[in-house]
Design goal:
The complex is a heterodimer. By secondary structure, chain A is α/β, with parallel strands linked by helices. The radius of gyration of chain A is 25 Å and the shape is globular. In chain A, about 45% of the residues lie in helices and about 15% in strands. In chain A, strand 7 (about 95-100) and strand 8 (about 110-120) form a beta hairpin. In chain A, helix 5 runs antiparallel to helix 6, helix 12 (about 340-350) packs antiparallel against helix 13 and helix 15 (about 395-405) packs antiparallel against helix 16 (about 410-425). The two termini of chain A are about 40 Å apart. In chain B, strands 2, 3, 4, 5, 7, 8, 9 and 10 form an eight-stranded mixed sheet that branches. In chain B, strands 1-6 form a two-stranded antiparallel sheet. In chain B, helix 4 (about 135-145) packs parallel to helix 6 (about 170-185), helix 6 (about 170-185) crosses helix 7 (about 190-195) and helix 6 runs parallel beside helix 8 (about 205-220). The longest helix of chain B has 17 residues, at about 260-275. Chain B is an alpha/beta fold. Chain B is built from eleven helices and ten strands. The chains are: A alpha/beta, B alpha/beta. The interface of A and B includes residues 79, 296, 306, 313 and 349 of A.
């Protein structure tokens, strides 16, 4: 495994085998040629049905401990060849993703992301069509393979663009699958959570932006229909979004007949459609959804859509909780070698970005003397800040610190108040160990 | 570690109508006219034994969470004015108005009543109104737009968005008109207002004027401003993230590097952090 020159503990991503995965995309061969131009040694898996199956086929094709996958609708930038990865993250239980930008609506997300797998993880996966019947599996479910150990890690940076709308059918399918999935998540997230707000934003973007892009109106049509399906269709089973056979039938029997043939034409697929009827369908769905849901949906002309989609105002879709959780994994040695110094950078980043739990966890590193420059004064200051930010754990830990200090009786009232505050916020451990 | 609430604070008010916001963060802050900011700040600093004061700029409403924003020691030692930006209630975008963390020395040296900020942090701290009546909204939109430039295509689109969003807000159409006039850079504020003030008695014509001015801006500046309906503006604003835009982060990182060794360490931490949020930052 080649290390990056002059960078100990860092590996070049370009050294790993890369597998191009395609299924039925008419543009796949062009994408394959694009990848070969960057990586002449790339291999390909084509036509394997099922998202679980095709990734396991990729693992077999790679024949290596670790491998990269590139989806058919994704184009890597030249900079992707220069990505480096900390060796500490090259764990058999981790999949590393570099998110991709959707060129239709500007969203940066896991769709079409460049992925670094461990073979072990890929072969252990039971997701999508391979998930048990009693489990709804809508993504790779990396965390459920071995709970507490396996992780999906979202890496910083974006080194690819994804165009899921090479044809009207594919654009429709991409929009439908994504919003059905997001809506399913939203209905389970709790209406007041920050996750819910983020999901609602994504749905708004998928259902409103994109007209300026190739087959963008078909993406909007699919997106609006996917949202409608999850919310309002009787008998709808979200797992249908994995069944491309169902999609094909749904498209030919139910979707396309509503639009019909006409003067608009797709150069790649040769399909023609009635642009006015498509427009009417999209707008009718939009009106229906605007009336019946709280998702912000509007129709935009092409240049209005382009203005927003290309203003670089959509951040990467990642959560601070995932950063904090990764820090905890390295702090406690959960699935990785214990490394509090390495944990620190994740806590510091999430703390800098305003995540209370990370501030608390950073304080714990100082409190427990787990880092080289541990300082009790810094620990107390960080706990105080975490308390201000609403952490349920920080009051308890600060109380523990104060109680452990010798001969300090004047703090008793303060200690009790802190313990009460933690309990009010939902944290009252039975043991002294705490969390 | 210092939090913003640890600094003595003044809430600045302007001549324009209405009293300062008295809810949310720093609710008990003493109010002074912005023209008296420097003098009042010195008096307050002396009384509190402080060398730095926090100034809440006019029309800014900090959140409660703003009080708990941590201030890195490198910034405390900086010796120059630092701004924490606020988000416009009209456009939903962050503006170069908010909280000013001002060393007394910098206030003493300032030529204007309010010193310029040398650094703007990427931490948004609340909202900015500036739209209480049509004339204020027009003036605010004009002044903000007339001072901005765009150094890249995405930045140009963000600048265009800032003059396109807002028709759904109170006096938002006036803000948009003022922004468009500001982008044209042909008239002074007074001249631009004279051109449009007759619309006060013809509010139904505002949207048509916005369309005309937007077309003029596109032709004369190349900026892709759009005339958005109230519903379109509302929906676009709903898409905006809570994070400040990437260029605010990058300017801050560059500015921190100029502070010396401690600033460099601060810049490194923000550089690591920004890569997690903004895709193009890596």
């Amino acid at each position: 495994m080649a290390r990056a020159p002059n960078k100990p503990g860092v590996v070049l991503l370009a050294e790993f085998p890369v597998i191009f995965i395609s299924y039925d995309e008419p543009w796949a061969d062009k994408g394959w040629q694009n990848l070969l131009a960057l990586r002449p040694d790339a291999k390909r898996v084509h036509g394997v049905k099922g998202l679980n199956a095709c990734h396991q086929a990729a693992a077999e094709e790679a024949g290596s401990e670790r491998f990269l996958t590139v989806d058919a609708d994704t184009v890597l930038t030249d900079a992707a060849l220069k990505i480096t990865v900390p060796e500490a993250l090259l764990q058999p239980d981790f999949r590393l993703d570099w998110q991709s930008r959707n060129i239709v609506n500007g969203i940066v997300s896991g769709n079409g992301s460049l992925k670094l797998w461990s073979r072990e993880l890929a072969m252990a996966m039971r997701s999508h069509e391979a998930a048990p019947d009693d489990r709804v599996s809508l993504d790779a479910d990396i965390g459920s393979i071995n709970p507490g150990r396996t992780r999906l890690i979202l890496m910083p940076g974006c080194y690819s663009q994804s165009d899921p709308a090479g044809t009207p059918y594919h654009g429709f399918r991409a929009g439908f699958r994504e919003t059905a999935f997001l809506s399913w998540l939203l209905r389970r997230s709790g209406s007041t959570s920050s996750a819910a707000a983020g999901l609602a934003q994504l749905l708004s973007i998928w259902c409103s932006l994109g007209r300026h892009g190739r087959n963008g109106l078909w993406v909007l049509y699919g997106a609006r229909m996917g949202l409608q399906a999850e919310y309002f269709w009787a008998g709808w089973d979200i797992r249908e979004i994995h069944d491309y056979g169902w999609f094909q039938t749904f498209w030919s029997d139910r979707v396309f007949p509503r639009v019909g043939t006409g003067g608009a034409r797709c150069a790649l697929s040769g399909m023609s459609w009635n642009a006015d009827r498509l427009e009417a369908e999209v707008q009718a769905l939009g009106r229906d959804l605007a009336e019946r849901t709280s998702i912000a949906i509007a129709d935009f002309e092409a240049e209005e859509s382009r203005l927003m989609a290309e203003a670089d105002l959509f951040p990467a879709m990642r959560t601070l909780e995932s950063l904090d959780s990764l820090g905890r994994a390295f702090q406690k040695g959960q699935g990785v070698a214990k490394d509090p110094e390495y944990a620190r950078q994740f806590f510091e980043t999430a703390a800098l970005l305003g995540y209370p739990s990370a501030v608390n966890n950073l304080a714990r590193l100082h409190e427990l003397d787990l880092i080289s420059d541990a300082d009790a004064g810094i620990a107390k200051a960080l706990f105080s800040r975490a308390i201000e930010m609403g952490s349920p754990h920080a009051p308890y830990h600060l109380a523990s610190m104060l109680r452990a200090e010798d001969g300090e009786t004047v703090e008793d009232e303060r200690i009790e108040a802190l313990l009460d505050l933690s309990a009010e916020r939902g944290f009252a451990p039975a043991s002294e160990e705490g969390a | 570690m210092k939090l913003l609430r640890d600094f003595p604070v003044l809430r600045l008010v302007s001549d324009a109508g209405g009293s300062a916001v008295k809810t949310g963060g720093f609710a008990e802050a003493q109010q002074v006219h912005w023209r008296d900011a420097a003098k009042a700040a010195r008096v307050l600093a002396t009384a509190e034994g402080a060398s730095t004061v926090l100034l809440i700029e006019p029309h800014v409403a900090p959140t409660m969470e703003a009080e708990a924003v941590a201030v890195d020691q490198a910034l405390c030692d900086f010796g120059e004015v630092i701004r924490y930006p606020a988000r416009s209630v009209v456009t939903g975008l962050h503006l170069p108005h908010g909280l000013l963390l001002a060393p007394i020395k910098a206030l003493e040296d300032a030529v204007a009543a309010l010193p310029s900020a040398r650094l703007t942090t990427p931490h948004g701290i609340g909202t900015f109104t500036g739209n209480q009546i049509p004339e204020i909204a027009f003036e605010t939109g004009f002044l903000i737009a007339s001072r901005r430039t765009a150094s890249s295509p995405p930045a140009a689109r963000r600048l265009a968005l800032s003059a396109s969003l807002g028709t759904d807000a109170l006096n938002g159409p006036w803000w948009v008109l003022g922004s468009l006039a500001g982008l044209l850079r042909k008239d002074s504020l007074g001249e631009a207002w004279v051109r449009h003030e007759a619309l006060l008695s013809r509010p139904r014509d505002i949207q048509r004027h916005i369309s005309g001015e937007a077309r003029r801006v596109r032709l004369e500046t190349g900026l892709p401003v759009q005339e958005l309906s109230q519903d379109q503006s509302r929906v676009m604003k709903a898409m905006l993230p809570d994070w400040t835009a990437e260029d605010i982060w990058q300017d801050y990182i560059s500015g921190c590097r100029a502070l010396g060794t401690d600033g460099g360490a601060l810049a490194d931490r923000y550089e690591y952090a920004v890569r997690y949020i903004w895709p193009g930052a890596a």
